[in-house]
Amino acid sequence: MIIVGLGNPGEKYEKTRHNIGFMFVDRVALANRASFKLDKKLKCMLAEFTLNGEKHFIVKPVTYMNLSGEAVRAVADYYKKTVDDVIVIYDDMDLDLGKVRIRKNGSSGGHNGIKSIIAHLNTDNFKRIRIGIGHKPADAIDYVLGCFSKADQNILNEVFDKAPNMIDDLIYKGIDYIMNHYNG
């Protein structure tokens, strides 16, 4: 499995709404005692862990959001994984803060990171976990690059606390199971 958290690299973006995917996969890595290392060739921070007898990869692209597909394609090609092995975690302004929506596929919904992944994988048939960051104001760019309040972070911590279980359940029980148990 390739578990991709979307975000932007660098301390400047670390706690922004657009980096919710990075925050999610950081929790997955921590729970699996996996450490991220920069892999320049694969254009990502990469961590590995073994579960259910298989090696799994956690990816944080270092390409910036709009080019995330470059890293996803590079990792999939290098490790000879198919689109069925990919799940992407990212922010969604159309969902209330902390709401989770899991899907088997779909359009980009206007999300530039997802647009890039669709373009590089030549399909929109990859699994996703969308995490709500609240509704957008007039200036979406400033909003997604803004930081969460302390109260918002507390709500999101409930989602992040479930992150390792979501991924474990995906690996052991499949996408339909996690859609039925974590959507909402």
Task: Summarize this structure briefly.
This protein is α/β, with parallel strands linked by helices and 184 residues long. 38% of the residues lie in helices and 22% in strands.
Q: Which sequence of SSEs, written as H and E, runs from N to C?
A: EHEEEHEEHEHHH
Helical fraction equals 25-40%
Report the average pLDDT across residues.
Answer: 95
Strand proportion: 15-25%
- Uncertain runs: none
Total beta-strand segments: 7
Strand order of the largest sheet: 2-3-4-1-5-7-6
Q: How would you characterize the largest beta sheet? A: 7 strands, mixed
Topology:
Elements: E1 2-5, H1 20-31, E2 37-39, E3 44-51, E4 54-61, H2 68-78, E5 86-92, E6 100-103, H3 112-121, E7 127-132, H4 140-144, H5 150-173, H6 175-182
Parallel strand pairs: 1-4, 1-5, 5-7
Antiparallel strand pairs: 2-3, 3-4, 6-7
Key structural traits:
7-stranded mixed sheet; Rossmann fold; 184 residues; globular; alpha/beta
Structure commentary:
It is a single chain. The chain is an alpha/beta fold. The protein has a single domain, classed as Peptidyl-tRNA hydrolase (Rossmann fold). It contains six helices and seven strands, in the order βαβββαββαβααα. A seven-stranded mixed β-sheet has the order 2-3-4-1-5-7-6, sandwiched between helices. It is globular, with a radius of gyration of 15 Å. The mean pLDDT is 95.
